[in-house]
Amino acid sequence: MKPDTRDQSERIAADLRAQIMAGQIPPGAQLPSIPALAAKRGVSTTAVQTAWRILKAEGYLVSETGKGVFVRDRHQFTVNAAAYFDPAERGVKYKLLDVAEVTAPADVAAALGEERAVLRRRLTLRQDEPVELSWSYYPVSLAAGTPLAGRGKIRGGAPQVLHDLGYPEREFVDRLSVRPPTTEEAEALDIPQGVPVLRQFRTVYSADERPVEVSVIIKPGHLYELSYRQSVSMDDRK
């Protein structure tokens, strides 16, 4: 086993973050004083102060003047991995950033089966806080000359357009990965230093498994958790 080479402040932040996420330190709980926690961990007070600064930037902790530092009553957004945000969900807004015909990135082109695509890039806001960036690609052979290639909002969204074109969405496959954010992602989503992003690579299929959309969806790691549900039967294992 390789030793943990992170500095003390990162280790402290990681331990506290895990305890908060697991509910071991509940919302509203007051943390020990900086000297007390430093003595308990056998580290400098500077290391504890830096750890708290990290967790405050991520939204886990909040200071109350003259009282101390408390766990903030803020939960990660739980997103069902089998669904987009409900467009009718209160407080969720979408800002269209760009629409263009482009040469798709290699992984997108391979999934679409075409190199040229119509790209719709947008920013999702939840209660006016930026929480998601997405790049949605549609085959030019389907999308050219349709509302998907226009710069306006689409009534019913892309699923309605695809349905009207005779290619209704039937299923999708998500590939998930974690990586550091790009500069564009960090700035657009106001991601604190050191926080990774969740990357969803989603391929949407119509009938006969024809790919009709590929979306790259970026979510800040400190704001989200993904939820999966799958029925399991012992009969399926035979």
UniProtKB/TrEMBL annotation:
It comes from the Bacteria. Gene3D superfamilies: Chorismate lyase-like (3.40.1410.10), Winged helix-like DNA-binding domain superfamily/Winged helix DNA-binding domain (1.10.10.10). Pfam families: GntR, UTRA. SUPFAM superfamilies: Chorismate lyase-like, Winged helix' DNA-binding domain. Residues 6-74 form the HTH gntR-type domain. Keywords: DNA-binding, Transcription, Transcription regulation. InterPro entries: Bact_HTH_transcr_reg (IPR050679), Chorismate_lyase_/UTRA_dom_sf (IPR028978), Tscrpt_reg_HTH_GntR (IPR000524), UTRA (IPR011663), WH-like_DNA-bd_sf (IPR036388), WH_DNA-bd_sf (IPR036390). The keyword Transcription regulation applies. This is GntR family transcriptional regulator.
